[in-house]
Amino acid sequence: MAVVGRLKPGATVQSAQAEMNILSAQMHGQHPEWNGYGPLLSPLKEHVTGRLRPALLLLACAVGVVMLIVCANLSNLLLARNAARQKEMAIRVAWEQGGGG
């Protein structure tokens, strides 16, 4: 069974674990027919992403690298288009300066 709780401000996981161990021992003393499992406290962030954290970091880095490649390709395409239109732009500037418009 998993239970989610919130610690009081200033409380630590270790102090809460110690308190839960005491409560567990009291409950086991009152109900010895229950199993011998005890509580194990962990931060929610660790519980949710514990084993997946390295994989998630690797995935985030891979996405970052792909985005850098996309940006480089896009800038190359824009530079190539600008270079191809350079002659056209020179003609337009000369046309405007020469009074052709």
Topology:
Blueprint: H1 13-30, H2 44-49, H3 53-84, H4 86-97
Keywords:
single chain; 101 residues; mainly alpha; 4 helices; 67% helix; 0% strand; rod-shaped
Characterize the structure shown.
The protein is built from 4 helices and no strands. It starts with 12 loop residues before the first helix and ends with a helix. With about 100 residues, it is mainly alpha-helical.
Outline of the structure:
This protein has 101 residues and is mainly α.
- Overall form: rod-shaped
Helical content (DSSP H or I, runs of 4+):
55-70%
SS summary, helix count: 4
Q: What is the structural class?
A: mainly alpha
Q: List segments where confidence is low: pLDDT < 50 over at least 5 consecutive residues.
A: none
Quantity of strands, as a count: 0
Head-to-tail CA distance between termini: 81 Å
Radius of gyration, rounded?
33 Å
Strand content: under 5%
- Provide the residue-averaged pLDDT: 87
Largest sheet: none
What is the succession of H and E elements?
A: HHHH
